[in-house]
Amino acid sequence: MCFASSTLPATRLLALEIGCEMTHLFRHPPACLLLLSLVSGLVACGGGGGGSNPTPDNRRICNVGEDISSDCREARAGESRPDPLRICNVGEDISADCREADTSTGETRPLPPSMDGLLRKHEAPTAPKLNFMEAADFEAQKTSFETPEYDGTFRTIPVNPATILTNRHLRRINASAAYARGATGAGETVVVFDSGFYSNHIEFRNADGSDKLVAPYTGRQRPHGTAVASVAAGTKTSNTVMHGVAFEAQLHLFQLPRVSTPAPGGPYVPIALDTYDEFSGAPRDAEDAATFGSAIREGLGAIVNHSFGLSGGIDFFDLALVRAKLPLTAAAFAQAEVPDADKKILVWAAGNAHCPDAARGCRRLPDGSAPRSTSPEILSGLGVAFPELQSHVLAVVALDQDGGIASYSNRCGNARSFCLAAPGTSIISAGFNNQGNPPPDLLTIYTAPSGTSFAAPIVSGSLALLRHYFRNPDNSYQLGNTELVRRLLATANKEGIYADAEIYGQGLVDLDAATAPVGSLMTGMLGAADSRPLADSRVALSGQAYGASLQSRLAALPIVGFDALDAPFAPANAAWITRPTRQAGGRAGLHAPTRATARMSLRSPQLSLTLDHDGGIYDARLTAKDWWFAYRQHGGQALGLAAQPLAQLGGQTAAAHFSDALAFSAPYLSWVRDGAGFGWARALGGGRRLGFALTHGSAWFAEQPEVGGKRGLGALFEYRLRPDWSLQAGVLREADGFLGARPSGAFGTARSATAFVGFNRAWAVRRQPRWRMLASAYLGHTRPQIERAGFLYGASDIFSSAFSLGAARASMWRADDWFGVRLSQPLRTERGSAKLRVAVGRDKNRQVLYQDYEVDLTPSGRNLQAELAYRVPLAGGAIKANLGVQHHPQHQRTDNLQSFMRLSFERSF
After folding, report:
1. Which of 35, 230, 388, 442 is geometrically suited to a Cys-Cys bond with 234, CB 3.0 to 4.6 A?
2. Burial (Cβ within 10 Å: 0-12, 13-18, ≥19) of residue 821
3. Secondary structure (3-state) at 242
4. Environment class of residue 707 by beta-carbon count within 10 Å: exposed (0-12), middle (13-18) or buried (19+)?
5. Are strands 674-685 and 627-634 parallel, antiparallel or unpaired?
6. Contact partners, residue 367, CB within 8 Å, separation at least 6
């Protein structure tokens, strides 16, 4: 079932790599200079103690057996006398020309010169990454694997130096995409049934010189099996002309009786099923069933490659006759006693029996006519007659070097549902010359045969990659074997010519598609009632109570989703946290927003009405004796900038020109600042006052609006002891979150109630009455309630705090200006945790695996902000400037200080 090709020696290359890498270790030049000075001193002075340094002895160390002289010196402590003899090569006897390796010093015996290209294997992770990388990283990773042996460029030296064979079969199946995602076949074993193997070939040795075979092979040495096995799992080195698809997989080689390679050009004689009864005195079906069944059971791998078969397309025969003559063979293939997840996957070469009428040299039927093999041959197509085989049997047709169906290859035909296409023409592979035990210089022979025999191991190697790729961290398998077959078929390239199922079956093998999600990732197995799109699963944060640490903590969780074929994937750099977008004029960078204000007021002794339009923000306020009503909303949106229904209680009018106008007010009510509210306040005499306010609104925390959240309820009670001192208590009820964290999608839903207390004070400095001191501090206790459990199934009580200290002065440098300074800590979680149960994978029996985690909600740092604010009238309006710096921005522990500046012009009309 293969076309013979001459074997050719590989060229040899010895490479020496010298590398240099520079990394920015320090952000501060003085530290870098100090380190360089220290290194320079060590290089110049050595590591000795005090005193003057002796003149160094630069003579070489005398060799073993050499007398000390003016040319060489004795070895010092820690040094050893070198042995001038070279180390004997692997397989070379110790003699006067070479010596044994000194293993105590890390020496190893080198490979013989004919194998000096075996320098090192490509560094690749043995544990796969269950994700798909971002485009830039992914492309760079792919390119690193696309080395010369990946494309199989083979110069035929010395036979014909002008001829270069290149078969880009690995590129055609997008193998580098699988490699870039961590799939190399490590830990997998491909079982190969064939006529024989030369197991000493360099492709069957790992890069460290160890054997790739899981069991010794002592059978016949044949070129066909040698080439087939190397295509599936030949080792990857830095200087051989090819490597296998699953280059880190192992091999288990079986020589089967009666398997042979037909003579090229010989007649094509379909098997006579009507006489397929006796073989060596025993029923042939029973004999084949015993042979195949035994090999399938004893094979130490899950994938079994068959690059041989019986002549005759499955469509040549009456299916009733096939079922009557091969029931035991089919039963051996079916593995009925084995669960689907563990059935051995049987990969078959479809056959090389197709012969176009105009072709020359192809094998003909006995009557001289050209066979038109529109379906796989009988063994590879046995699933047509026995449908129970189709879940774990694959037939493989061969492509030519242009990517179309090879002229000699059988087509998929009536086996289209379990048939695939793979490159099969001039596949560069390990060679062997059939001359018994060859000398070492034949260990690197390569050949370039054609046939479906060499397309099949490409599929077998691909399955080994997928099996390696879909593992849990404990190396248990996530997909069953029949699921791997289904995935390879479903993800095959069906575009263009490959859409013709009669020829290409399910299409061309595509390892990029097979190792990437199919469709959207869901949080549970496909079809589960509680399954939700992973892309819609987020925790939206407004404010900075939890800081920036929560994102990194959630990103560290091995959360996986399941694609349309139920395969698990962990999205790379998953952004489980979303934050509102800052408005222009925010703290990041320099902005120059302008704002126009229009106001209309109606006032009487008992009643007043104020309507404001301020930069797109609409504000209405009605006051009737001790009661007031307020409403504010951002124009054109369901958002607003800090409605003031609560500002008549606890507010600091002296703080109005800081970057956060409510910096000295209760921060918990920032989540209901945009909405409607009412309140009541009454003076009690002696500067005392009692009041309350109630509001229903959405969040606008500092300058960050909350998007898509439900409106909450807020209540504030205030007792003013005297004009400059007040005590406050309040309640915040969030309808869809807790302290600004709003879970959705797979995270579930939650609501909460927060009780808080605080004080607020503004007083004049005795000797500097133009200066007013400002102070506030708040403590809160939040109790979350999980409404719909998802990833988030519980949360502890949360304790939080905030404070501000400042000073402000009117008429600082001119009669109508204003200057202020403040130091503050925005609202911060002091204690709290959330409990999550996330999907981390699945097992081969389709059970989702979950893991419980408790995530600390306390930020890693404490954000302290210092700010200078200045306001001066100009041209009928006012210019306001805010300049500040903050330590541990977003409560994130970092070495950097972050500055902010804001410049604005305001004018009222």
Report:
1. 230
2. middle
3. coil
4. middle
5. antiparallel
6. none
pLDDT of amino acid 4 = 31
Alpha-carbon distance of 409 to 649, in angstroms, equals 86
The DSSP symbol for 414 reads: G
pLDDT at 552: 84
| DSSP character at residue 93 | P
Using one digit for the tens of pLDDT, what is the confidence trace for 563-599?
999 999 988 767 888 876 543 333 333 333 444 455 5
Q: Is 251 exposed, middle or buried (0-12, 13-18, 19+ CB in 10 A)?
A: buried
The two beta strands, 445-447 and 429-430, are antiparallel
Beta bridge partners of 762: 774
**Dihedral sign of CA atoms 255, 259, 265, 266 in order:** positive
- The answer for residues whose C-beta is within 8 angstroms of residue 873's C-beta and 6 or more apart is 816, 817
Integer Cα distance of 158 and 11 in angstroms: 9
- Give residue 226's pLDDT: 93
Please give the backbone phi and psi of residue 599, each rounded to the nearest 5 degrees, phi first: -140, 140
Helix residue ranges per DSSP H, 407-510: 452-469, 481-490, 501-504
Q: Quick one: how far is CA 484 from the chain centroid?
A: 20
In whole angstroms, give the CA distance from residue 736 to residue 743: 8
Is the Cβ–Cβ distance between 855 and 550 less than 8 Å? yes
Per-residue pLDDT of 858-886, as tens digits, reads 999 999 999 999 999 888 788 989 999 99
Question: Whose CA is closest to 185, among 379, 464, 538?
Answer: 464
Cα distance between residue 194 and residue 229, in whole Å: 9
Pair 197, 219: CB distance under 8 Å: yes
**Closest C-alpha to 540, from 827, 792, 851, 783:** 792
Strand partners, 837: 852
* Residues 559 and 595 sit within 8 Å (Cβ to Cβ): no
**Positions of E strands within 457-592:** 538-541, 561-562, 568-569, 577-578
For residue 847, count other CB atoms closer than 10 A to its CB.
10
Helix (H) or strand (E) holding 233: helix 223-233
Q: Do residues 446 and 454 make contact, with C-beta atoms less than 8 angstroms apart? A: no
Residue 703 near residue 725 (C-beta atoms within 8 A): no
pLDDT for the residue 193: 93
Q: What is the pLDDT of residue 909?
A: 55
User: Could you tell me if 145 and 179 are in contact, meaning their C-beta atoms sit under 8 angstroms apart?
Assistant: yes
Distance in angstroms (rounded) separating the CA atoms of residues 47 and 44? 9
Q: To which residue do tokens 């969780």 refer?
A: 557
CA angle 578, 580, 583 (to 5 degrees): 150
Contact call for residues 2 and 454 (beta carbons, < 8 A) = yes
- Angle of CA points 833, 838, 842, to nearest 5°: 160
Helix (H, G, I), strand (E, B) or coil at 279: strand
Nearest-angstrom CA–CA distance, 393 and 482: 9
Polymer length of the chain: 909
Question: What's the CA gap between 701 and 699, in Å, rounded?
Answer: 6
Cα–Cα dist 499/148, whole Å: 31
CA dist list (Å): 287 to 273, 299, 694? 15, 18, 88
Closest by CA position to 458, among listed 242, 779, 708: 242
Dihedral sign of CA atoms 201, 481, 421, 4 in order: positive
Give the per-residue pLDDT at 602.
Answer: 60
Residue 618 CB coordination number (10 Å): 16
Cα separation, 386 vs 156, in Å, equals 45
3-class SS of residue 736: coil
Q: What residue ranges of the chain have pLDDT lower than 50?
A: 1-54, 90-91, 111-127, 156-162, 279-281, 436, 438-442, 582-596, 634-651, 702-703
**Rounded distance, CA 123 to CA 144, Å?**
10
How does strand 164-166 pair with strand 848-856? unpaired
Residue 615, token pair as written in the block = 């930069």
